[in-house]
Amino acid sequence: GENVEQHPSTLSVQEGDSAVIKCTYSDSASNYFPWYKQELGKRPQLIIDIRSNVGEKKDQRIAVTLNKTAKHFSLHITETQPEDSAVYFCAASMSGGGADGLTFGKGTHLIIQP
Amino acid sequence: EAGVAQSPRYKIIEKRQSVAFWCNPISGHATLYWYQQILGQGPKLLIQFQNNGVVDDSQLPKDRFSAERLKGVDSTLKIQPAKLEDSAVYLCASSANYEQYFGPGTRLTVT
C-alpha cells in the first residue's frame, strides 16, 4: 500500500518568514495530493490540493509543488501569520475518476513566533 | 451548504463495552469515509463507501469494527468489544469528486 513520509515533525518560524513542509510518497500510481490544516481539537480542513497533471498550484500565500519523478511534494507558506500556527498534514491517494481514501503523513506542527 | 455532521462528539466507555458513531455527509456526496485519528498521528482510513456499497475496508479490524451505510446517505460505525487502543478521534468525511471534507469527529476514550 501507499506510504507517505512527512518532514519536519515540528517547524518554528518567525512571523513574516516562509515555511516549507515536505512529503514523499511510495506508490507511483498516486495522483492526488491534498494538504490539510488541523487546529487543536478541530477537524482537518482542506487548504490546497494538486493533481498529478500539474507541477505547481498557488492560492494567495499558499503554494504546493509536485515532482512526480522524485515522488515528492511540498507545501510553501509565505508571509506567515500567527493564525497559520497549526498541524499540517499531507496526503496521497489514487483517484481514478473518483476519490479514493487518503493516506496521510504524520503531520508537521507549525509554530509561528511573534 | 451544511457540512458533515457527526454524533456524539464525545464518548467514554469501559473496555469490552460497545459503542456506535453516526455520520451524516454533505448532501449529494456519494462517497463516505471513516478515519481513525490517534493522538499525535495523521488520520488512518478505516472504510470507504460509494453510495451504499463498500469500496475499501482493508484496514478495518473486522473482528471488532463494523460499518454500514443504509440508503446511501447516513452511516454508522460500531466497535464491539472496545479495547484500550481504540481510544482515538473517529472522523467521518465525504466527497463528491476529489476533495474530502471532514466532520468534527467523535472523541472516544476507552478506560
Keywords:
heterodimer, A: 114 residues, mainly beta, six-stranded mixed sheet, five-stranded antiparallel sheet, 0% helix, B: 111 residues, seven-stranded mixed sheet, four-stranded antiparallel sheet, globular
Spatial shape of chain B? globular
Q: Rounded to an integer, what's the Rg of chain A over CA atoms?
A: 14 Å
Overall mean confidence score, pLDDT of chain A: 94
Cα-atom Rg of chain B, whole angstroms?
Answer: 13 Å
For the largest beta-sheet of chain A, the strand count, sense and barrel status come to: 6 strands, mixed
Instruction: State the separation between the terminal residues of chain B, measured CA to CA.
Output: 37 Å
Provide the residue-averaged pLDDT of chain B. Answer: 95
How does the helix and strand content of chain B classify structurally? mainly beta
Give the H and E element order of chain B: EEEEEEEEEEE
- The string of secondary-structure elements of chain A, in order, is EEEEEEEEEEE
Assembly state: heterodimer
Percentage of residues in helical conformation of chain A: under 10%
Q: Can you count the beta strands of chain A?
A: 11
Number of strands of chain B: 11
Helix/strand/pairing class of chain A, anyone?
mainly beta
Whole-Å distance between the termini of chain A? 41 Å
| Beta content of chain A | over 45%
* Structure annotation, total helices of chain A: 0
Question: Spans of chain B with pLDDT under 50 lasting ≥5 residues?
Answer: none
Description:
The complex is a heterodimer of chains A (114) and B (111). With 114 residues, chain A is mainly β. Chain A has no helices and eleven strands. Chain A has strands spanning 4-7, 10-14, 19-25, 32-38, 45-51, 56-59, 62-67, 72-77, 86-92, 103-104, 108-113. In chain A, the strands form two sheets. In chain A, strands 2, 4, 5, 9, 10 and 11 form a six-stranded mixed beta sheet that branches. In chain A, a hairpin with a 4-residue loop joins strand 7 (62-67) and strand 8. Chain B is mainly β and 111 residues long. Chain B is 0% helix and 50% strand. Chain B has no helices and eleven strands. Chain B has strands at 5-7, 10-13, 19-24, 31-37, 44-50, 53-56, 65-68, 75-79, 88-95, 100-102, 106-110. In chain B, strand 4 and strand 5 form a beta hairpin. The radius of gyration of chain B is 13 Å and the shape is globular. Chain B starts with a strand and ends with a strand. Classes of the chains: A mainly beta (114), B mainly beta (111).
